[in-house]
Model the fold of this input.
Amino acid sequence: MRDRLVTAAERVVAETGGDALARGVYALIRENSVEVRIYLHPAGERWRDMSTAEVTRLWRAALGGEIAGLESLRFAADAGGPGRGPQVSVELSHRDLATLERATEALARELEAFASVRDVDDGFEAGKVQLDFRIADEARSLGLDAAAIAAQVRARFYGAEAIKQQRGRNEVTVKVRLPADERTSQSDVERMILITPDGGEVPLYQVARVVPGRADTAIVRRDGRRVVTASANVEPIGETGRILAALTEDILPRITVDVPGLSHSFEGRQATMRDAMNAFFRSAGISLLVIYVLLAIPFRSYVQPLIVMTAIPFGFVGAVLGHQIMGYSLSIISVMGIIALSGVVINGALVMIDYANTCRGEGQDPEEAIWNAGVRRFRPILLTTLTTFGGLAPMIFETSRQARFLIPMALSLGYGIVFATAIVLVLIPSLYMMIEDIRSLGRKAAAQVIPLRPTTDLPEVAADAGAPRRLDAAE
Done:
């Protein structure tokens, strides 16, 4: 397998620039897995500036179709840095291992049905072949348990420590085990003679049954339950959302119904994004509260800060549109840019409302005040927006691969503030007049006086019957 991978990698390198593309091919065998890497030159120095994803695609095509006996195969163009790993990772959990294996196989078959899914791995690895011992009842009657039988089998095949000798500065351990011709087959194991606690001898096949099996390469548990992660890559990566939606709405619910007791969760990149979004909502809540307090103090109003903060949702919409226009997917870096955007996008609404309040203090009516604010503050708001976008433009339109890590944040800030400003110039005056109209209606309702009906059925009261008298100065 290593030779096939290395040959395919070397052929891709030779056909796409040779030494001008890559510095070499590296291969490493770890027990039952093989890792092969192509070390490319830094971005900008490669032949035709070929991307890592393009080299990976050519490598996969050069390897050909399925390989017999291969458990799983994965090509990765993002082996390092944040956001690495398969685009889809689903963790399944069940108390029965056989049931869990069937569920992961069913999920893998569903993923393979998508044309954009590559490198599907059901998460199960057969591991190395081993011999399992099933202890019979006769062993217990002879005083042998699993630990005693395992210790004798290990000593005969791996070796038992006989003596340690000092040779200069080194300590030499001498182990004793069966001759090589007596430990070459499964029958040698079954015919092995065991020593009972009372000194007797008994063949292994009389006290234990030898069953061929496989060793687990890894055992992963979560909350005491065995878990297996099925994963896959998606090309193009923009199709990941559609695959996840199909898993959430159709495939996983159907498998859960067919396999009672099965639980599932998205891990890997999805878990990272989920944690980032939870942190985003917490940070966004705190940020919005702080912004509201800082606006309410100078405005001396509970409503006007809300008018200013209406620009924030439109900034989010602009950030999403910017990613779609530039062909980028939302990422954790994009979320960080959106958080920063919430404090920048309110500047235009803030200066407009502040100028309107100043005009109101000079005696202007609300309509005239907000009209003057829109006219007098249009140029500063527009210039501030354009200069902000202009400052971010070099990063947004940068083509080097070193800048791709920060481009999503620049997209969120640049396109978010442009879109929000276009909406704010129309929306803020409208909201301002709506609030003033509501206040005017409230004042009119409070100013109305409801007349009382005169009371004619009460008896007249004499003027001098306890009524206070007015004293003249002469008296």
